[in-house]
């Protein structure tokens, strides 16, 4: 399952996740604006995927400027890459992978700007961000699968699968790897109002691979945790602070509280690029607030009084004390998180 994003003949093709699981349609991005729109309107989503898409977006932004210039010789000079990066960075504020990937593209720009094959080098950089993400997912999934027991029922929230990444997935990657290793597991997927990433994407991904999955509204979590219906919880992350406080899809905090109350292990699976070495704790994480209309409508169907006020935060922060372990491509992170996350940054440097 890696065909949801690809580059072909100077254009970026993205599987439109808003239409899944009912239709498999692609949008083609030839301009920077197409990528900015695809991120803003949720054609693509999921922290690692946002980073990858943004990296290709930088390539498109540069390509567009080069094509608009008459003289090929001077085409690379005076490209203000910071303007391109700002447009992409102004889309969704919470997923740190987006900013991490943009930073990598700025560094690549500085490195290659005087080369003859500058544009190709920038494309190579975007491709390597993409390929590395798939590899990291596979690695972290192998580590994570060790934490899963035969017969487990695992609850997951939102979609942290192949669709949310370059491919394979983080939380769903762990589930995939456990399944591939022959463990009999069952998954409970929460719907994830209002975008229904759980219902539309997680259920679809798992059913495609014949991994047993059952859908529940997220208001079932308290009951399921209390009646021994859940053995483990695994979620992805959008940004992890230096102390381990974790931003993920709204509702994750509520799940962590329930899991903690009933002593159910609560795992966060994420690549190292999701850890933010610039912030001490979760209070510094910007939480995206989206249009309240997204709560009032399900697709085009109005669910409430048209004039009703509505509020929609995309993410919440789970304090580190409710997290049992982090699962990364460098291994499983134990407590005290602050100490081991620091070591992770030292490995990344
Ligand atoms: O609003 P979304 O769909 O972009 O939110 C996605 C999530 O919260 C995921 O759990 C997170 O990005 C991790 S994806 C591997």
What attributes does this structure have?
349 residues; Four Helix Bundle (Hemerythrin (Met), subunit A); Rossmann fold; 2 domains; 3-stranded antiparallel sheet; 11 helices; binds 5-S-methyl-1-O-phosphono-5-thio-D-ribulose
Description:
By secondary structure, this protein is of the alpha/beta class. The chain folds into 2 domains: 5-137, Four Helix Bundle (Hemerythrin (Met), subunit A), CATH 1.20.120; 140-348, 3-Layer(aba) Sandwich (Rossmann fold), CATH 3.40.50. Helix content is 40%, strand content 17%. It contains 11 helices and 17 strands. It has helices at 32-40, 47-68, 81-89, 96-112, 118-145, 171-180, 197-208, 221-226, 252-261, 293-296, 337-348; strands at residues 5-8, 11-15, 26-29, 153-156, 186-190, 213-216, 232-235, 239-240, 246-249, 266-269, 289-290, 297-298, 301-302, 312-313, 315-318, 325-328, 331-333. Strands 6-5-4-7-10-16-17 form a 7-stranded mixed beta sheet, sandwiched between helices. It has a 3-stranded antiparallel beta sheet with strand order 1-2-3, covered by helices on one side. The two termini are 31 Å apart. The model has no long low-confidence stretch (mean pLDDT 96). The structure holds 5-S-methyl-1-O-phosphono-5-thio-D-ribulose. 5-S-methyl-1-O-phosphono-5-thio-D-ribulose (MRU) binds next to helix 2 and strand 9.
């Amino acid at each position: 399952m890696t065909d949801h994003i690809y580059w072909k003949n100077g254009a970026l093709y993205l599987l439109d996740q808003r239409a899944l699981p009912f239709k498999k349609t692609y949008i083609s991005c030839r301009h920077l604006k197409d990528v900015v729109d695809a991120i803003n309107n949720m054609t693509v989503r999921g922290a690692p995927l946002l980073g990858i898409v943004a990296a290709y977006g930088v390539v498109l932004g540069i390509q567009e400027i080069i094509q608009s210039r008459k003289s090929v010789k001077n085409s690379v000079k005076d490209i203000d890459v910071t303007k391109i990066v700002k447009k992409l960075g102004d889309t969704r504020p919470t997923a740190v992978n987006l900013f991490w990937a943009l930073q990598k593209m700025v560094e690549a720009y500085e490195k290659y700007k005087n080369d003859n094959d500058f544009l190709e080098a920038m494309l190579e950089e975007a491709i390597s961000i993409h390929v590395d993400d798939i590899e990291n997912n596979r690695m972290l999934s192998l580590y994570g699968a060790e934490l899963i027991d035969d017969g487990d029922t695992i609850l997951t929230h939102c979609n942290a699968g192949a669709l949310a990444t370059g491919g394979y997935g983080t939380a769903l990657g762990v589930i995939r790897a456990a399944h591939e290793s022959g463990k009999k597991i069952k998954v409970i997927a929460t719907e994830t109002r209002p975008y229904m990433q759980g219902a539309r994407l997680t259920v679809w991904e798992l059913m495609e691979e014949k991994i047993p999955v059952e859908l529940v509204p997220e208001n079932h979590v308290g009951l399921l945790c209390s009646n021994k219906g859940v053995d483990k919880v695994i979620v992805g992350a959008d940004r992890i602070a230096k102390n381990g406080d974790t931003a993920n899809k709204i509702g994750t905090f509520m799940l962590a509280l329930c899991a903690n109350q009933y002593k159910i292990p609560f795992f966060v699976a994420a690549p190292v690029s999701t850890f933010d070495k610039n912030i001490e704790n979760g209070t510094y994480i910007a939480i995206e607030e989206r249009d309240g209309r997204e709560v009032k409508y399900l697709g085009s169907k109005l669910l409430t009084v048209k004039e009703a006020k509505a509020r929609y935060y995309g993410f919440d922060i789970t304090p580190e004390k409710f997290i049992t372990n982090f699962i990364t491509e460098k291994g499983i992170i134990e407590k005290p998180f602050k100490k081991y996350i620091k070591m992770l940054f030292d490995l990344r440097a």
